[in-house]
Write a structure and sequence with these properties.
about 100 residues; alpha+beta; about 30% helix; elongated
């Protein structure tokens, strides 16, 4: 990064901070979302959304018919911790890639 002669130190610090955020891993952002022991959030590539079904839902899914899960657990594949759970199925539809 080149320092421009007319820039104030606060402007330089702001540009450095923006550059750091741009190159930061998407799953390690600094917000208040739940994290596993490794520091991963729901959006990290090492986190799996694990849908949980009831008995009859599981029976119907095994026959090939789609069902909405009643709960979604977010599991870190690195440390094996379930660090977040939701019953809002719209979250699963957004995270499903």
């Amino acid at each position: 990064m080149k320092v421009r002669p007319h820039e104030l130190p606060s402007d330089i610090a702001r540009r450095l901070d923006n550059a750091r955020r741009k190159h930061q891993s998407p799953g390690l952002v600094s917000d208040d979302s739940p994290r596993c022991r490794c520091g991963h959030t729901r959006s990290h590539y090492m986190v799996t959304a694990d849908p949980k079904y009831g008995f009859w839902q599981l029976f119907v899914v095994s026959m090939g018919i789609s069902q909405k899960p009643h709960r979604i657990d977010y599991l870190c594949r690195r440390c094996g911790q379930v660090f977040d759970t939701t019953t809002d199925v719209s979250d699963y539809a957004q995270d499903d890639r």
